[in-house]
Amino acid sequence: MAPLIFSKIVTEIDITRSLSIPTSSLGLIPLEEGHSVDMHVYDSCGRLWIFRSSILQQSTGCEGLVLSVNWLEFVSHKNVKVDDEVIFIEEIIMNGPGVGARLYIQVRRKIRLFGQDIWADL
């Protein structure tokens, strides 16, 4: 199974402004406030999405930095809603002598079926 990088239950701010990911969940990547990066992410259909992202100070008054991900086109296209779960997964790719990684995004929605809560992929 590919390593899970990050998962989160989506909030109203995530779908109206930007997805906030605490930089502490991103491992040892050196990140500084004000830096920006383009995240190349594949969805479950194999479509490549490019999320323009910036490192910002948390607006909640807590200490620490967040990766602010501009994913609003994706949200609209996939009809992401509050309380859905967003998951980022990294897949290691072996190409001949080189090794690379590919980032995937998965969105799941909780549905009630026969009295049971089930997470279904969007």
Structural account:
This protein has helices at 12-16, 72-78; strands at residues 4-9, 19-22, 36-42, 48-57, 65-70, 85-95, 98-113, 116-121. With 122 residues, it is mostly beta strands. The chain has one domain (4-121): DNA-binding pseudobarrel domain (At1g16640 B3 domain), CATH 2.40.330. Strands 1, 2, 3, 4, 5, 6, 7 and 8 form an eight-stranded mixed beta sheet that branches. It is globular and about 45 Å long. This is TF-B3 domain-containing protein. Keywords: DNA-binding, Nucleus, Transcription, Transcription regulation. It is found in: Nucleus.
Secondary-structure blueprint of this entry?
Blueprint: E1 4-9, H1 12-16, E2 19-22, E3 36-42, E4 48-57, E5 65-70, H2 72-78, E6 85-95, E7 98-113, E8 116-121
Parallel strand pairs: 3-7
Antiparallel strand pairs: 1-6, 2-5, 3-4, 4-5, 6-7, 7-8
Outline:
This protein is mainly beta and 122 residues long. 10% of the residues lie in helices and 54% in strands.
